[in-house]
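Researcher: Let's do a round of design. I'm pasting the structure tokens now; please hold your answer until I've finished.
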């Protein structure tokens, strides 16, 4: 299984994380891939970072990069093996619309929402009151509908960053409880 290399989406989410004050916060990097978001969380002052990915190779590589830091790597398909609660969650999901799921790190199924919709149902269980979610989505995923779903779950959500690419627009949605 290949490890997702940082690209425009990763850099946009990293930029949003670095604007957060994570001092003393317990953070979750869902779908960590290369670990760019975990590194940004540490840089923003996180007390602890838990990185989750379905790819064991990505996690093994990350463990060597965070030796001596308060860092945990968990192999999990979304929240299946995740325990505890978090003050802050960041997720760059597979969001590319696809007929099926051939590439788990990019293919998002119909409307690119297969993983996003499951994540939205599950993440509130592990986010503390007053916690923050940063979710990266594409214009192909219907960002307004995603914000409505988050708000219906009791969150205050807004787009805090966006980047226009030649074939889509990327958005970082910030949701707070």
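Researcher: That's everything. Go ahead.
Model: Designed sequence:
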């Amino acid at each position: 299984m290949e490890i997702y290399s940082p690209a425009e989406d990763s850099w946009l989410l990293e930029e949003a994380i670095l604007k957060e004050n994570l001092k003393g916060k317990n953070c979750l990097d869902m779908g960590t891939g290369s670990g760019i978001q975990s590194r940004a969380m540490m840089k923003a002052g996180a007390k602890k970072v838990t990185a989750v990915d379905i790819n064991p190779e990505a996690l093994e590589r990350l463990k060597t990069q965070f030796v001596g830091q308060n860092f945990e790597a968990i192999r999990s398909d979304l929240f299946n093996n995740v325990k505890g609660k978090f003050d802050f969650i960041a997720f760059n999901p597979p969001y590319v619309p696809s007929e099926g799921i051939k590439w788990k790190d990019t293919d998002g199924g119909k409307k690119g929402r297969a993983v996003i919709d499951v994540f939205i149902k599950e993440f509130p269980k592990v986010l503390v009151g007053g916690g923050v979610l940063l979710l990266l989505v594409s214009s192909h995923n219907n960002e307004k509908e995603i914000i409505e779903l988050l708000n219906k779950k009791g969150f205050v959500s807004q787009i805090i960053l966006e980047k226009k690419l030649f074939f889509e627009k990327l958005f970082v949605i910030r949701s707070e409880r």
